[in-house]
UniProtKB/TrEMBL annotation:
This is DUF1656 domain-containing protein. The keyword Membrane applies. It comes from the Eukaryota. The chain crosses the membrane at residues 32-52. Keywords: Membrane, Transmembrane, Transmembrane helix.
Length: 59
């Protein structure tokens, strides 16, 4: 249970840091956070959608 509490505390600290510094600072200076947490999962969803679309159209 302790690792879960530490992870929760880390998440809370991260969210407070984003609120203090602002989302703009994160997107500009810490771009990897934005890419890893938002763009990469979105890219996977986009690829799966177009793979399924092509499979349905050309089967």
């Amino acid at each position: 249970m302790d690792p879960l509490l530490y992870l929760g505390g880390l998440l809370v600290l991260f969210l407070v840091w984003i609120k203090v510094k602002g989302l703009e600072y994160v997107i500009i200076h810490q771009r990897w956070i934005f890419v890893c947490l938002f763009l990469l999962p979105l890219s996977v969803i986009f690829d799966v959608y177009y793979y399924l679309r092509a499979w349905i159209i050309f089967k």
